[in-house]
Amino acid sequence: MVRNLVVIGGNSHPQLTQNICGVLGIPPAEVLLSKFAVGETRVEVQESVREKDVYIIQSGGGKVNDHLLELLITISACKTASARRVTAVLPLFPYSRQSDIPYDKAGAPLIKAGAPGRPANGGYTFESTPPTPGPGKPEGLGLMNGMDNLQKGLARAQIEESTGSPVKRRNGLPRNDTTDSLKSAANGADDAASNASSKINSFQPRPGYKQWVAQAGTLVADLLTCAGADHIITMDLHDPQYQGYFDIPVDNLYGRPLLKSYIQRNIPNYKQAVIVSPDAGGAKRATAIADQMGMEFALIHKERRPTKITDRQNATMMLVGDVRDRIAILIDDLADTSNTITRAAKLLKKEGASQVYALVTHGILSGDAIERINASALDKVVVTNSVEQQEHLRLCPKLEVLEVGHVFAEAIRRVHHGESISVLFQYD
Ligand SMILES: O=P(O)(O)OC[C@H]1O[C@H](OP(=O)(O)OP(=O)(O)O)[C@H](O)[C@@H]1O
After folding, report:
1. Looking at the chain, which residues constitute the CATH 3.40.50.2020 domain(s)?
2. Which span out of 59-63, 106-110, 185-189, 388-392 was modeled with the highest average pLDDT?
3. Per the record, where are the segments of Low complexity compositional bias (predicted)?
């Protein structure tokens, strides 16, 4: 029996909200989620949430920016309506792939070359510009400027003291007669100062400083907290360290038990199959499954770390491991354009794999991902319904969908009753 628990579903995945509420045995709360003609989101919570434990379900696929804003407004609406606690349930966490800036092998940000002949990273340097002043280092421009102003001021004070008249500044005001040496001292000081200031005016920071890649992951974490979220529930975060961006509890559920059970039930003689990670980033995730199931593991190594689709298409891929005459099972956290899994499947078939399965927690499948899968060497693609899959299922005969509603329902029930979440995955 769940008391004082309210579940609100956003527009991103009404079916999942229904499934979760079905397991919990409560109806979703009445909310009006609409838009003004201009496109602004409008949220009306149509029942009382005073002193209630509220769970708002909003996933990260589809119109991700609209859904995020809708979630923020709904959190804030519940908070200001005196909800006791508000938990944002994000089956696929939006922006979690942007928790760091893209970088190359040397650790420098990947930025466009600004001009012909400039190195691929745009001439990025780890040196700060202007250099930090310090013992034995040349003075920075800022410090020089300060010193020059001081010298100029002192020279002027000397002239004024000896002549008893104010010295004309370089602004066209009448100038009193002064001794040549003092005049030249003052003018010299002015020249030095104006040289320094023209250096500042013409100062161009190095290209690495002009480019700034937004760390949207940090901002999204802050926005959720500022809107009033007290707790986050999500699944298979792209980068589990992203939890550290929050100063509220984050429960990162695993999709692993669902994927493992699919393998056990549906892949014939699965112990002879090979678990494959399509890139180094997902190796930990895939080896965890291979180890727990006593299966072999292979890795596809991408020659360089790509950040754009075009980069990914150009990246060289090579297989580390043996898949000849065996079923290869690709494991990844998400498929967006599906470029990663379709290219990996092509390579695995070339290396002699008899069949290729892709088991992916979040089937975002944007743009022409479905067409790409249909035309690919993949035999089967298995995703969870952390993102809406009805339309994908209609278009893709190779697609199979695993239900996650009961996992989120159980997590909500446990959080509501103050029970452990980790025991949920203790024996997976
Ligand atoms: O379907 P796609 O459009 O090909 O995208 C899917 C890939 O993107 C993500 O990794 P990402 O390339 O962001 O980097 P990482 O795993 O190296 O962190 C994800 O882990 C997949 O491997």
Report:
1. 5-98+215-252, 255-305+314-402
2. 388-392
3. 184-198
Give CA–CA dist 26/130, Å, rounded: 62
pLDDT band at 171 (very low <50, low <70, confident <90, very high): very low
User: Which residue type, as a one-letter code, is found at position 308?
Assistant: K
What token pair was written down for 307?
Answer: 């950040």
User: Candidates 104, 334, 347: which one to mutate for ligand 1, based on the most atoms within 8 Å of Cβ?
Assistant: 334
- 407 CA from centroid of ligand 1 (Å): 24
> What's domain 255-305+314-402's architecture?
3-Layer(aba) Sandwich (3.40)
Q: Name the residue of 239, 304, 332 to mutate for ligand 1: max ligand atoms within 8 A of Cβ.
A: 332
Ligand 1: residues whose CB is within 6 Å? 97, 238, 278-279, 281-282, 312, 332-340
53-99 tens-digit pLDDT: 999 999 998 899 999 999 999 999 999 999 999 999 999 999 988 86
- Site to probe by mutation for ligand 1, drawn from 105, 312, 340 as the one with most ligand atoms within 8 Å of Cβ, is 340
Nearest CA to ligand 1 atom 6: 335
State yes or no: cis peptide before 130, omega within 30 of 0.
yes
Q: Enumerate the β-bridge partners of residue 342.
A: none
In three-state secondary structure terms, 401 is strand
State the amino acid at position 422 in one-letter form: S
DSSP-based three-state secondary structure for 253: strand
5-98+215-252: CATH topology is Rossmann fold (3.40.50)
- Let me know: does 46 contact 8? Beta carbons within 8 Å: no
